[in-house]
Amino acid sequence: MVTVSSTSSRSATAETTSTARVYTPSSDGHVFNDAPTPVENLTMGNLRLSSPTPSTVSDIYSATPLHGSNVSPDTGTQPASLASTPIPSVQMMTPGTSTAPSAVSEDGPAPSTSSSSNTLPPGLSIDFSLSISTQGSPSRTPFQFTGPDFPLPSIENPWTPPRQLPALTSPVPSMAGSPSRDREASSRHNNILPPSLQAHPSAGHSRDDVASMASHVRRIQINGDSLSPPLEQSEQPAMSSRYLSPSHGLDDDEGHPGGSPASSRPSPGRRRRSSSQINQAPHDVRDEKPPKDKFNHPKFQRAFKDSQKMMAKLQETMGSSDLHLEPDSTIRRLRKQAEKLARFRCPPTRTVGFVGDSGVGKSSLLNSLLDCKGLARASNSGTACTCVVTEYNYHEHDNFTIHVDLFTKDEIQIQLTEMVQAYRRHHLGPATGDRDEQQDIADRAKVAADTFQAMFRSREQFADGQFVLGDQPEKAIVSTMIKWADQTLENDLPGTITVDSKAECSRLLVDFTSERFDRQPRRSNSAQRTEQSLWPFIKKIRVYLSAHILSKGLILVDLPGLRDLNSARQSITERYILKCDEIFAVCCIGRAVTDVGVKAVFDLAREAKLSNVGIVCTKSDDINPEEALTDWKKSKGRELEERMDRLKAAEDELTTMKARVDELREFQQDDDLLDEEIQELERLQSLIPSRERAIETLKLEQQRYLISTRNSLVRMQLLNLYKDTIPGGNLKVFCVSNKLYWEHRQVARDKALPWLELSGIIPLRKHCIAMVSNSQLRIARNYMDNDVRSLVSSVELWVQSGAGTQTAEEKEAVHYVLDAIEERLKKDLTGRNAPYSRLSRDLAEEFRQQIFARRRITRWTRQAVDASSDWAGWHHSTYSAFCRNYGRHCTNAVGTRNWNQEAMEKMVRDMTPSWTAFRRFITDENINIITTKIEEAMDWAIEFVDDEMLDESEPTAEILDQVLETRQRLLTADLEDACQKFETGLRLLWTNVSSSHRTSLMGENMETAYKECQAESGTGSDSRRKSIIRRQLSDEGVFEDIMMRFKTQFRELVADLQKAVQRAAESHVAEICQTMNMLRDENVITESERDGEFRKRVEEEVAWVRAQLPPRD
């Protein structure tokens, strides 16, 4: 539709003249501005404006061919009235339509005859021919409208261009010619351009009066809104999705389809943002939308931050006197509590592990999630050290702290023994077995050789590589290596290092985890320079840094893949996976479906019955359009082909335009250009930038379509492949591109955000943050409802103790109540008969009766032997493969089997009902009873205060009630934490008992037998392997050991639970007694009385804080 702004100049005695000025955007954002021309009637497209008296159509700020028509005078919103007298007209013609003047009735404008074909894709142009008939001679002005640039559509509202290829341009306007130029030059001008760029003929009009460049258009006015004057070029607005036509399928900001009235009509008086208002700052992770939950709700977050601010203000007030400088003063202790609460931050409550083989992009993924480019990286040689577990923890400082956990001497000895055997077997043993077995032996020998070189390359004995192959026995070789390792552990390895810069932290991580290491020993009295790597000695690295995602209560962990041939490191990864709150298997998207590392993670999840496993596919941007076109069928392939065709057509047209510009420039150098060719050159030069932007948009949209479509296809394949592995089928799959993320990370936020979303990093980060919401909500509520209120009550008691309002009799009564409460609480909650005092012994006895006494060792052993007999009938190569893979393998002959699981099947089936019933007994008959008795003791104390003090000293009684209530809530919260930790321990314990993975109790019992089988070779090795496995499973000691360790570890768990409950009870009883001392300790009373003005300030501040506290949830 078209909007026209007009003002009327009427006179009762004289007729006024009318002028028209047309402002219409061109391709480069400029406008052609027609000089004021006297008119009395104006027709644009299908709109005709008439006036009973001559009018001054002062400014037409925009002419946009959309559905419908309307007229909006400056003085109102009603269409102008008609005049019946014949008058001149101004006519706008659009390509492919006939726009003869149409009458406008008194009831409003005539219906629109424009069609959706006249709408513009972004960055593309359409040309108009404007003819003006006035009282003088007729004139004609060519002009052009170009769809302006706009921010890329969001992930939620992608731009889907129409199926049919639209014309990129309409005919260019006719240029004024000169009769003095020859016809040959004119032919050169008209015929060299492609048909889409040929001049559009307009019958009956001359080629003159070319409009000059004018100012930019402030805004496009639609549907009768008021108009604004033109602005300078720097204020040219960015194109919004609401300006796009319906054929593009792009929704506006409110979700209306593009081109609909809702998306096309701005609210009255609302101003479009100009380009100068576009957010030029790069994306800030702190501005990302948080998950939609109670903890991240803005109202709750404001209340949480307000509580911290109130504690800071209270701390400041309590520091306004010198009393807090006295070492033993109560106000000093209270002020420190306020300082601690003012700086309170929810502790980390969830751990997310990322497990995958080297080269899949785990380090880059973690850098992106941490928003810390280059922190975790591969060494210069490309040998990333993913064999070392690396934790990323939060601290609020700007520096970086690295803490290194080392293997113990015994753990190193076990690893060295295993590697020496593997190395000697490969180089000294006979070449027997099938090809797979020989390859496995060679791989393990290579791992051993690489590790030896990393640990001992500075030793002369390793110069020729013959030390391990010498005549010495294996034990002597290992003993020598242990001595060398001790020297390295003593001289070189750090404990904790703090550095100021990310670059230094990254360098240290490479040093600690890469193949080579070269630095001076830390001991000042050691002058020898070492070159050995340190990663073989490192068990785990913990990095502490300030990162947004970590500040939300997360710990991120980089875990090596489960296929590490170093059994010690594989076991570390396996145990860590079982402890993580969520695990993501990381792989490259190109081989996600066939990635064996991902399969290994889901095999473990199946055996351990884990439901918290997902997949992250990296390198989602690595996709070739031509290959995708070959692979994708039906609608996806057709749409991709159409997008590619559109892009090629646009590129071809741009190439033609540039060739024409080059040709015209050659003539320009010879000073042989016609006037119309000069104008053509200027016009083409102004058009090329918009064409280039349009091509860039098409490229980006094609990339978006490629990435999004491939992500959907891979996600569906992975869901079909692994959904049955996860209980409930709730498998989470994320596709990410670290390259896309960092390419756009420092770009202006408004332009970068769609691509940051497309990278997949923001959705994955949001998912991880959402994991901690429930636990963080509970902690934050406990802080606001109990910790803050407890301190407020204590400060109120301090103020009350120095008020001097109590008589001697009242003080005596208060002391009696306080003494009675202290005596009773100490007896009931911390004495020998406290409800938790026999918790460990009672639960251990119940375990013995309900679980341990019901073991059926002989029956379980017989079933395990029967299972081994079944395996003994397999081909020797298949049997050997299962031994090499610790009983868990898959072959074409037997499929996927797990020896450990089959051997313990009877034990698990017998014990599961008993364990389930025992778990219920622990909760219902023990833990719940204990917590109830503790709550009853606290309830008695509150009731006793009310009965004995409420009438005698009401203010003090009310404060004491609040003290006891908040302490009861804090004690209950600590008991819940202890019970939750106990429940987690029970879950992990049962997983280790009932599961068959390598680090389970069954797996550890079979480890020695599998390694003995791996050492066998030569003639008769098959029968010896089968004999080793059968002998191991025939020994009743396997299941006896499992049950004994089960009992021992359960006792350790209940002992830890009892200690945690006792620690919580004693701590809170001590806090209650210390708080009550403020009412009966003369030193505290004297302190409160010493400075009346200070006490008054504290009283006023704590009263204000009390009034501001939100109600308990």
Fold and architecture overview:
It is a single chain. The chain has 1113 residues and is α/β, with parallel strands linked by helices. It has 31 helices and 21 strands. The strands form five sheets. Strands 14-13-15-12-16-11-17-18-19 form a nine-stranded mixed beta sheet, with helices on both faces. Strands 1-6-2-3-10 form a five-stranded mixed beta sheet, with no helix packed on it. Strands 7-8-9 form a three-stranded antiparallel beta sheet, with no helix packed on it. A hairpin with a 6-residue loop joins β8 and β9. α3 runs antiparallel to α4 and α4 packs antiparallel against α19 (773-801). The longest helix is centred in the middle third of the chain and has 48 residues, at 675-722. The protein is globular and about 105 Å long. The protein starts with a strand and ends in a 5-residue tail after the last helix. Residues 1-276, 379-384 and 517-530 have low confidence and may be disordered.
Tag the structure with descriptive keywords.
1113 residues, disordered N terminus, alpha/beta, five-stranded mixed β-sheet, nine-stranded mixed β-sheet
Short overview:
The protein has 1113 residues and is of the alpha/beta class.
Secondary structure elements and pairings:
Layout: E1 5-7, E2 20-25, E3 31-33, E4 42-44, E5 47-49, E6 56-60, E7 90-93, E8 125-132, E9 139-146, H1 183-191, E10 212-214, H2 261-264, H3 298-318, H4 330-342, E11 350-356, H5 362-370, E12 389-394, E13 400-406, H6 409-428, H7 435-456, H8 474-491, E14 496-499, H9 502-513, E15 538-545, H10 548-551, E16 554-560, H11 567-579, E17 582-588, H12 596-608, E18 613-618, H13 625-631, H14 634-669, H15 675-722, E19 732-735, H16 738-744, H17 749-758, H18 761-771, H19 773-801, H20 808-830, H21 839-850, H22 857-872, H23 876-884, E20 888-891, E21 895-898, H24 899-903, H25 905-949, H26 954-994, H27 1001-1015, H28 1021-1034, H29 1037-1076, H30 1082-1090, H31 1092-1108
